[in-house]
Amino acid sequence: RPPVVYGIFILRTSVFILTVDSAKDGKNAYVSFHVDVHFMDRHQSVWNALTVALVVCLARDELMTRLDDFETADMPEESDPDA
What we know:
By secondary structure, the chain is of the alpha+beta class. 25% of the residues lie in helices and 29% in strands. It has one helix spanning 45-65; strands spanning 4-11, 14-21, 31-38. The protein has a three-stranded antiparallel sheet with strand order 1-2-3, covered by helices on one side. Strand 1 and strand 2 (14-21) form a beta hairpin. The termini are far apart.
């Protein structure tokens, strides 16, 4: 099952959230616009933060279910243990 592709576009104090079903291609692919969040609107600041956090958590959880699909990268050993 191909994943949903999440798009989070940040322009100054606005955030646009879009998704695309990667199973569809060409003319069948539809970009779904979900929300335009304005962080300068002080009356909506908590709701805006929760909206963006929800999308980020959904994208993270989707990637975590596909963890076995990725190859492990050979990382050099860090010389600073606190880094």
